[in-house]
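Changelog note: in this version the structure field was regenerated for every chain. One regenerated record is shown below for reference.
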Amino acid sequence: LQEAARLLKGRRVAKGVDLQVWTTLAIKGLADHNGFTAVIEEAGGRLYSGSCPVTINSDYLSKYRGVVFDSLKQSGSARLYVTGPVYYGSTAAAVDAATTGEWREAFRWRG
């Protein structure tokens, strides 16, 4: 969360993009205390805890045209529910996609 907040500071989430950052309740408390939540929200994002987008229900993810994750587990699981593309890359790539409103192939992890 610290990295996401650092990358988002002074930037805005692109119009039409729903930036959601998911974490545990304990980590959210630390993010709130350290100001990371405020930075994410000032940029137009939201910080969620207590669940994850893949386990809520299939209707939740199916409403999005495409999604970006910096978690391999989440990106793999989301493919079951998302009708559009599911992208996986670094936190920096996810933030760039959220602030530009587009995914660029150059963002992909390279192995």
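Spot check on this record: The first strand starts at residue 20 and ends at 23. Residues 25-34 form the longest helix (10 residues).
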